[in-house]
Structure to design on (137 residues):
């Protein structure tokens, strides 16, 4: 069975980049840590919430790289000089990526009660009608 691509459909012109974005998002970290929610807060805005208990603001980095929102967390190892009888809370690093569509802007990021909230907004698309003139050949 052959793989269907957007290029297989003759009416979809110029969607090669969309296909690459879909492939990249499928590879963009399917690990389950940290857990997150994505909610639509209005018709043109969203909020991503990550559970980052144990991380301080300085342990987190939020960047936009090639239309991807990348959230990284790296905790400092503060176990030096401490003796743990049981260590069930691991200081682990993570990286979460979200592919952003054209027109999606990242707003503010707020840390609250162990949750990192990142607000996104999408510009309202304009309806454009263009008439193409036909020349005699």
């Amino acid at each position: 069975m052959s793989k269907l691509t957007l290029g297989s459909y003759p009416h979809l012109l110029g969607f090669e980049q969309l296909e690459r974005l879909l492939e990249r998002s499928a590879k963009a970290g399917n690990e389950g840590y940290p857990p997150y929610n994505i909610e639509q807060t209005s018709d043109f805005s969203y909020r991503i919430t990550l559970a980052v208990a144990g991380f301080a603001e300085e342990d987190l980095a939020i960047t936009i790289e090639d239309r991807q929102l990348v959230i990284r967390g790296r905790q400092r190892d503060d176990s030096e000089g401490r003796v743990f009888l049981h260590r069930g809370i691991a200081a682990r690093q993570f990286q979460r990526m979200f592919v952003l569509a054209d027109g999606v802007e990242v707003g503010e990021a707020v840390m609250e009660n162990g949750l990192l909230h990142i607000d996104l907004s999408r510009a309202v698309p304009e309806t454009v009608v263009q008439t193409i003139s036909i020349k005699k050949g």
Observations:
- The CA atoms of residues 67 and 100 lie 5 Å apart.
- The domain at 33-122 is CATH 2.60.40.790 (Immunoglobulin-like).
